[in-house]
Amino acid sequence: MRMKNTQRTFLVEPPERPLPSALLFLRHARFRLLEDCFVKINLALAELDDEHIWWRPNQSSNSIGNLILHLSGNVRQWIVAGAGGAADVRNRAQEFAERNRIGKGELLDLLKTTLDEADAVLAGVENECLAARNDEPLQRVCKPQAFEQTVLDAVFHVVEHFSYHTGQIVFAAKWLAEGRVRFYDDRRLNQEK
To answer: How many domains does the chain contain in total?
Structure first.
C-alpha cells in the first residue's frame, strides 16, 4: 500500500480557536503518535516483506520488528500503565530478544492497538484538564518504569522516543526498499512550482 498522496505535510493544522497550552500539548502529542509516526511506519512497512522486517545489520543491532515491539512496550508502559494506571506487564528484554518472525500485519496491529489505548488515556487527560480548567492533570505524578514523572514528562518522553525509533525504522526501510519509501512531494518542500 504505497502512499498515493505525496502532498501530505505531516503537520498538525492550527486550532480553529486559541487553546490552553495543556490542550495544545496533548493535541500535538496525539497527532505525532497516530497521524505522523504511525502513518510513516505503516507506509514504510508496506514496501517490505517479513524477511526485511526481521533483518538486522549485525547481532548487536535491532530489526524493524524488534523496534516495533519496543515501541509498543514503551508506549504501553509509560502512557497506558504509567499515566493511565493500567497494569504494567511489559517484558522489555523480550522486545529486543525476539527472533521469531512475527508477521508485518500482526506487528502493525499490535502497535495500532497500543497507540489507540494510549490515545484514549491522552483523551482522558484532556478531559481532566478541561474539567479542572487548568493543567494540573498533566502535573500529576505517575511512575512508569519505576521513575517518578509527571504525566507531561511521561507523554513528552514517549513522543520523543517514538519519533527517534520511527526515524530508525524509516531509515532501514528506505535502505531495504530503495526508492519505494517516500512521504513528501520534494517540489513542495523545496517551494518549487
So the answer is: 1
pLDDT digits (tens, 9 = 90+) for 107-143: 999 999 999 999 999 999 999 999 999 999 999 999 9
Q: Please give the Cα distance from 171 to 173 (Å, whole number).
A: 5
Find cell 538486522 and name the residue: 56
Q: Decide: 19 and 27 in contact? Cβ < 8 Å.
A: yes
Asked if the structure places residue 4 within a domain, the reply is no
CA distance 137 to 126: 8
The vertex-161 CA angle with 57 and 164, nearest 5°, equals 45
Examine residue 13 and state whether it is found in any structural domain, yes or no. no
Q: What pLDDT shows up at residue 193?
A: 61
pLDDT at residue 8, as a whole number: 61
Max Cα-Cα span within the chain = 53
DSSP lists the bridge partners of residue 150 as 141
